[in-house]
């Protein structure tokens, strides 16, 4: 068995090219599966956090404890971390662009759901209402940054291949 000259993750046995274990295709496939799992888990956690925040805020008058508000913030933090890790491990820029675009579209929806009397509310209520907006804004900014950074890498690698 000798390495194939056309692709480093293939080997040649006789006249057949076979995929080596741990090759580029398998690693990319596993990376894609992992990033999709993290993305789905992050979106589920974000939905649970949004539903929990809505449940807390539906009390009339608003009377929630600090631990309930803190739990909602922790849920949003976990969802943000999972989605951010998923965005950074996505193997393709096309998927990263689609996810970032959908996150950008959620910002106006979250702004529409904000009550208009935030300055008159308590600080805890205002922070709890702003959590989904900040969550979507941070993820959109991180997605745009990763999209541009990987786009620059692909352009640099294309120029490097053109020179060779």
From TrEMBL:
The chain crosses the membrane at residues 25-50, 70-90, 97-114, 126-148. Keywords: Membrane, Transmembrane, Transmembrane helix. The keyword Transmembrane helix applies. It comes from the Bacteria. This is Uncharacterized protein. It comes from Pontibacillus chungwhensis.
């Amino acid at each position: 068995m000798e390495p194939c000259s056309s692709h480093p993750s293939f080997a040649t046995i006789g006249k057949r090219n076979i995929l080596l274990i741990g090759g580029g295709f398998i690693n990319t496939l596993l990376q894609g599966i992992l990033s999709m799992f993290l993305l789905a888990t992050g979106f589920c956690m974000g939905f649970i956090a949004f539903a929990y925040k809505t449940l807390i805020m539906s009390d009339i008058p608003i009377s929630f404890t600090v631990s309930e508000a803190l739990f909602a913030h922790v849920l949003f933090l976990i969802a943000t971390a999972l989605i951010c890790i998923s965005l950074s491990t996505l193997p393709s820029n096309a998927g990263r662009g689609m996810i970032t675009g959908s996150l950008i579209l959620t910002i106006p929806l979250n702004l529409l759901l904000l009550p208009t009397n935030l300055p008159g509310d308590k600080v805890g209520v205002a922070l709890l209402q702003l959590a989904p907006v900040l969550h979507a804004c941070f993820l959109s900014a991180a997605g745009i940054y990763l999209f541009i950074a990987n786009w620059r890498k692909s352009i640099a690698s294309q120029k490097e291949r053109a020179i060779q």
